[in-house]
Design brief:
This protein is of the alpha+beta class. It is built from 13 helices and 25 strands. The chain is 23% helix and 29% strand.
Length: 498
């Protein structure tokens, strides 16, 4: 009998304990708790009218200033492709690039069907009068480049020049008084420093993301060049970059440009951890070359180089190495050969800057032009040397090569391309040349609209862009009568006078 009483007592205690636990959970865990405060006690609950911009933020963590400075200077770039150009000429290599870069490219299923394609990216205004930096892959093979400012104003941009070896391009729009981003110094950026990425991912204008510099001088083997001239020395960050960010700004917390966002490391085409930007020291040099010369002036040492590591040092009998680049070969007559550098030397510094990877050395040399002198420190047989090398171009001399400008195109303010077969069929015509207005010039001043298809000049048929330029080049004539069709199919005759 005593055992039964003991069991009942234990059971009752268990039930009471369970009820107490359930009551406590319902009362103190599942239900929200409230606490009252004395009127004199300060409250730390946020108020809706609280101005968060006045919050005290630890030094180096306030991104508001840089965001306000940079956003007006980052533009949205929209590119348009006709069947006869980009969409008809894309290759499997282009598709591989698209997967890596993650940009919204023309829809594959429409390729070759005469359907106009569009793509999207970003750009950075570099000057008050409308020069804009972007990636080459953003505007490559485009028939028309549209630039949309932060305030929604839209312009058709002129392509000044491109450099596929650094994946950079320079555009120009006809406007003044524009906000622009000031150049910073990417050499001064340190691993772990905060940076902001500003661009237009997924067509979301003026998006700002933050991250830190994860690495510098990074080579990810995405740029390829038939002459093996590609320069990859990216700033790696963990700032979120997605499709549409390409060509946008990477800035420090002062709002200074320290890179052009170019690529992401991703198996999906969207951000998965790291992004890569061309350092501004290289961007600035390329932009200046494209503006002044029409093409990049590449300076070369004329050597083949290999990253030095412990295994290579042991193999080559190099003692006490700390850092440097192993010279695997020297081209005859090159800048390096003239300076006395030989195969087997280990380059440790260029212009006083230590070099730890081939990509770093290539970037530093690429900032120069043919004819520039650089100081090279190197080791040979465990002894240090310093020489001065005069850099040369790929032709082996120090000449600056200037791209020939087509002055007539500049005067006319337009380029000329062949219309697609669908465009000709829609207008029921068999010949014509399409006008691409890229700046203010004779054609726009005379009322010729963008996209106008010229069929005749002074009653003579035209079928090729060269024919248009040849006919309009005769300035001895007082004027020309251009016949053709607008993009809406209206037939027009427009007079142009010299």
């Amino acid at each position: 009998m005593s055992n039964i009483k003991q069991f009942v007592s234990v059971l009752a205690a268990s039930i009471l304990g369970g009820v107490a636990t359930l009551y406590g959970y319902k009362t103190y865990v599942e239900q929200p708790t409230f606490q009252t405060f004395n009127q004199n006690q300060p409250s730390y609950f946020a108020k809706f009218d609280y101005d968060t911009s006045k919050s005290v933020v630890p030094e180096g963590l306030n991104f508001i200033y840089a965001s306000d400075v940079v956003r007006p200077s980052v533009v949205h770039i929209r590119t348009y492709y006709e069947n006869t150009t980009a969409s008809a000429q894309r290759t499997p290599f282009d598709e591989m690039l698209r997967e890596f870069y993650g940009d919204r490219m023309p829809n594959d299923k429409n390729h070759g069907r005469g359907v106009p394609q569009e793509a999207s990216g970003s750009g950075v205004i570099l000057s008050i009068d409308g020069y804009i930096a972007t990636n080459n892959h953003v505007i490559e093979k485009a028939d028309k480049i549209e630039v949309v400012l932060n305030d929604k104003r839209s312009y058709i941009a002129k392509l000044i020049g491109t450099d596929p070896t650094t994946d950079l391009a320079l555009l120009k729009i006809e406007e003044k008084g524009l906000p622009f981003v000031k150049y910073g110094n990417s050499d001064n950026m340190r691993i772990g420093e905060w940076v902001l990425a500003v661009g237009n991912p997924f067509n979301l204008n003026s998006t700002v993301t933050a991250g830190i510099v994860s690495a510098k001088g990074r080579n990810i083997n995405i740029l390829r060049d038939k002459d093996n001239m590609a320069i990859e020395s990216f700033i790696q960050t963990d700032a979120v970059v997605n499709p549409g960010n390409s060509g946008g700004a990477l800035v420090n917390l002062k709002g200074e440009l320290i890179g052009i966002n170019t690529a992401i490391a991703s198996p999906t085409g969207s951000y998965t951890g790291y992004s890569f930007a061309v350092p501004v020291t290289l961007v600035q040099k390329v932009m200046e070359d494209l503006l002044k010369h029409g093409q990049v002036q590449r300076a070369l040492l004329g050597i083949s180089i290999i990253d030095l590591n412990a295994n290579l040092a042991k193999e080559k009998g190099i003692k006490d190495f700390v850092h440097g680049i192993y010279v695997g070969g020297v081209n005859a007559g090159s800048a390096a050969a003239s300076a006395g550098i030989k195969e087997g030397d280990v380059i440790t510094h260029v212009n006083g800057t230590p070099v730890n990877s081939a990509s770093e050395l290539q970037e530093i040399v690429a900032r120069n032009r043919p004819g520039d002198k650089v100081k090279i420190k190197y080791m040979r047989n465990d002894k240090g040397y310093e020489v001065e090398a005069t850099l040369k171009n790929k032709s082996g001399n120090t000449e600056i090569v200037k791209k020939e400008d087509n002055s007539l195109n500049q005067v006319l303010g337009a380029d000329f391309v062949l219309p697609s077969k669908d465009e000709l069929a829609k207008l029921n015509i068999s010949n014509g040349v399409k006008v691409k207005i890229n700046s203010k010039g004779k054609l726009s001043d005379s009322g010729v609209p963008d996209g106008f298809i010229i069929t005749t000049i002074n009653n003579s048929k035209v079928s090729k862009p060269e024919e248009v330029l040849e006919m309009l080049s005769d300035k001895s004539r007082e004027g020309y009568l251009i016949g053709g069709y607008t993009s809406k199919g209206e037939k027009k005759f427009i007079g142009i006078g010299w």
